[in-house]
Amino acid sequence: MRELRLFLIAITLMLATCPARDLAQKSTDPAVKLKTCTVQGMVVASATGEPLKSVRLVLIDPEQSEPAQGFTDSSGHFVISGVPAGAYHFRASKLGYVEQAYHPNDGDGSARLLVLEPGEKLDKVLFRLNRAGVIAGRITDENGDPAARVLVEALVPTNAMTFGSRSRFQMDRIQQVVTDDLGEYRLYDLPPGSYYVAVTDFVGQGPTLRGLEYNLWRTANHPRLYYPGVTDSGEAQKVRVTAGEERHINVSLRVEKFVTVSGRVFDPGGKPASQIVVSLELRDAMAGLFQRGLAKLTDAQGKFEIKKVMPGSYKISAYNRVQGADDNRYWAEQRIEVSEDNVAGLLLQLSGGLELSGKIAAVGGSKLDLQSLTVTLAGDGDDSAAEVSAEVRKEGTFTVTQVRRTTNRLQLSGLPEGWYLRAVVFGTQNVLDEGLNLAGEDINHSLEITVSPGAGQFEGFVLRGTDRISGAKIKAVPEPANSLRQDRVFDAWADERGHFIIKNVPPGSYRLLAVDVESDNSDNSDDSDPQSVVAVLAEDESKTVHIKLSETKE
Description:
There is one protein chain. This protein is mainly β. The protein is built from five helices and 47 strands. It is 6% helix and 46% strand. The strands form twelve sheets. Strands 2, 3, 5, 6 and 7 form a five-stranded antiparallel beta sheet that branches. Strands 10, 11, 13, 18 and 19 form a five-stranded antiparallel beta sheet that branches. The longest helix is centred in the N-terminal third of the chain and has 15 residues, at 2-16. The model is unreliable at 1-28, 165-169, 205-209, 213-218, 285-292 and 323-327 (pLDDT under 50).
């Protein structure tokens, strides 16, 4: 399943920064060494039974940051020693093969968590790895010539387990490569499944010329395309890849009419503002991956001109780059629609951020160390400079400065066990569900925040039929989905008994999703979503919820 693939990508990135370790070397206490475990076995190719060398084996505890790991030798054997007792996601991976989970019955049957008792020595573990799939081909321009240095990506629809809600315009990148001088590419190491192939004529490079290194960003000369050559992601076709298969997909870039967006930026006093960064961001989540590179500096008259802009809905913003405490102090933002004609005469006037005051109160006068709390307001988009915070004073008051005049989402950190963010009011605005809208004139209010010690919890089992599924991943998200309510998004893992518990949950309606990350089903089709159930939680309630997974073919 693609959830397994994304889970393993995260683990792989983590391993890249963590050297291999022998956990037995971590302790000199003989009593501790007696309690550690040893796991050994062999890895072979599923199709031929041939031993595989240099296979990476990892024992992953989701609660620990550093997994135990080892590698197979030239005979396909491995030994991992000094492993603490516990329940682990056990994985084998090698370039060109599909990562596989641990199968207790000599590599056959259902995959499961590996549960190690103190001092256990597990031998004769067997992994049978299948060859991974490949999507390869050639990218040409509108004249039929090879298109070099073009980014090619293998994408799958964003999983609800990742973002809490599904959108066909959101994608997870599984693999990416750049075409060579012949326009050829090869997306390798793909688990069996269905993929969208995206082609982007926009690649950052850092070439070296006679020892002089410099950065060169080549702007797009063609629109982003999805196989079989469409610009609309909704019209894209999937490419199906089976184990060990190599699919050949060619794409020809096409000419698209680009337009120019231009205008002027003025400082808070109405004078032309020079050396101001003006950026243009396409709001479509997929195309936004490359359009964020469209940025220019204003000239001495405050003028800017951004060329090669494709039609679409954009957010244009301007901000100064003053280093130090006042970095990005002045800012402006505007939404624009770009069609087939040039957009000229845009006027952006910089303004300083707002200063907002507020107060936090606990329900019923409950005792709480308010000084342990921090209030954060994050502006629209991914710009970290739009995020500002303030510590709360002893009496519960706070002041946040440099808040941008846009829709902000509020976060409150530092709440102790059992507490939750109950309400946030700004004038007539329901900030928790709708965000803090500061774009209008009605902004002379106080942020009134209420917290409560009445958080509840969900607990239950993940089931497939009557079997309890160990090691499954569970996510609770608001129902209906609301990207502003990050305080109501929770992750949990089922233990070796298939049991899970999610604590400190605010009351409300939730969709609880579960996916069996041990499953070897790597299908990326639209019907491979996690299984889910909707439940309503009251204040101080502990609710039992069982999530039933669909039957799978082993």
